[in-house]
Input
Amino acid sequence: MTEIVKIQGLQKKFGKFQALHDVTFTIEAGSVVGFIGPNGAGKSTTIRTLLGIINRSGGSATIFGKDVWQESLAIHKRVSYVPGDVALWGNLTGGEIIDLFMKLHGGGNQAKRDRLIERFELDPKKKAKSYSKGNRQKVGLIAALSVDSDLYILDEPTSGLDPLMEIVFQEEVEEIKNAGKAILLSSHILSEVERLADKVVIIRQGRVVEAGTLDELRHLTRSTVTVETTADVAAMANVPGVHDFKQTGSHAVFSVDNQHLNGVLEEATKLGVKKFESVPPTLEDLFMRHYQG
Ligand SMILES: Nc1ncnc2c1ncn2[C@@H]1O[C@H](COP(=O)(O)OP(=O)(O)OP(=O)(O)O)[C@@H](O)[C@H]1O
Ligand SMILES: [Mg+2]
Output
């Protein structure tokens, strides 16, 4: 696989405050990396260093194999960026701003622009200062997605979009991904990350604390099992990997380390299964763990 982005041991200090301690991850072509973590964890700081807007205090970062500080001009020709709070020139219309962004980027795809304006239901003739937050966000998104880039860096791009527009966004991101492009998606909308991300990177206090596919991350955690057996279900409490065991009559509910699921199934079979239900942790379960420390 082609590595589009490679960040290694990235550090950033603002004066005495160290915002990034150790950020390491990669983004491959044709994949979406979901970048999540609590407020102030360092997502936007990582993104701003990637864009070459702010300098690093340590570590390295490359895009297309080029150093992001030495060769930012060459890199930016092939990168689209959407911030979470799009700032616009108030006296221009949305359409004019989109065209300006596209020109600055050396063209862009007119047909795609028109299709996106229609899909996102944006009125391009209105002046930017009259747009609502969601509509400002759409202008930024349409401008960025209309350009054929190899890497799309999206920092909370859907903040302010309504649920229908969120779906349009997700479909457009999937199309870009299927075209082989790379996408970095920072978001607090976990359902969005769950649907789109091939890999999730969780950052907390300037450090990557977890990274992998959703399946890999789920493997590290526990599923919730509900079981009903013919013989006394109490025996299940002693199976390795079983936690928080609660019994009501012939019913039991407990959590189990995913690598021990097989042993749980075996024991349940011995007791005579009447009901067995295993629910994997949601991204929210995984995320909340890191929120709460
Ligand atoms: N220019 C700056 N000067 C000083 N401190 C800064 C600066 N920019 C960011 N920080 C600090 O760095 C830390 C990381 O901020 P950052 O904006 O990267 O967080 P984030 O993960 O994007 O959070 P959010 O989810 O709220 O967008 C915060 O403690 C923030 O206050
Ligand atoms: Mg941020």
